[in-house]
């Protein structure tokens, strides 16, 4: 398994707007195409205004194929357009991680 940890830094005062847009326009599309959502979080302490979500994939090829299908979905394009118009995201970081042999997540 591979886990993708995506961290979005959101402009101050825009977090609620971004979360509402994501929930209404992106969550169902991503869940349909990407499959296994491990968790979705906002920061409580540390760097403020961050959203972190984790997705699980069987392999790097699985991830590439799933993301390609999602990118081709017109609903994803509509969300992407609204996301740009909202102009709330400051930075996106993406990390692909592999669990250790003793990790509870395999």
Q: Using DSSP, what is the number of strands? A: 4
Helix content: 40-55%
Helix-strand string: EHEEHHE
Derived structural class: alpha+beta
Note the total helix count: 3
Strand percentage lies at 25-35%
Let me know the largest β-sheet.
4 strands, antiparallel
Distance between the termini: 6 Å
Gyration radius over CA: 14 Å
What is the arithmetic mean of pLDDT?
Answer: 96
InterPro entries: Dimeric_a/b-barrel, NIPSNAP, NipSnap_domain
Organism: Stutzerimonas tarimensis
Pfam families: NIPSNAP (PF07978)
Domain NIPSNAP: 3-104
What keyword list fits this structure?
4-stranded antiparallel beta sheet; alpha+beta; 3 helices; 4 strands; 106 residues; 31% strand
Task: Give your account of this protein's structure.
- The protein has 106 residues and is α+β, with helices and mostly antiparallel strands.
- It is globular, with a radius of gyration of 14 Å.
- The protein is 42% helix and 31% strand.
- Strand 2 and strand 3 form a beta hairpin.
- Helix 1 packs across helix 2 and helix 1 packs antiparallel against helix 3.
């Amino acid at each position: 398994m591979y886990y993708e940890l995506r961290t979005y830094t959101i402009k101050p005062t825009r977090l609620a707007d971004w979360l509402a847009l994501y929930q209404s326009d992106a969550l169902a599309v991503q869940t349909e195409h990407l499959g296994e959502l491990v968790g979705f979080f906002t920061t409580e302490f540390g760097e403020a205004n961050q959203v972190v979500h984790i997705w699980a994939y069987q392999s790097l090829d699985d991830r590439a194929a799933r993301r390609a299908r999602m990118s081709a979905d017109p609903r994803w394009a509509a969300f992407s357009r609204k996301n740009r118009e909202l102009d709330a995201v400051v930075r996106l970081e993406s990390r692909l991680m592999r669990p250790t042999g003793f990790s509870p997540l395999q």
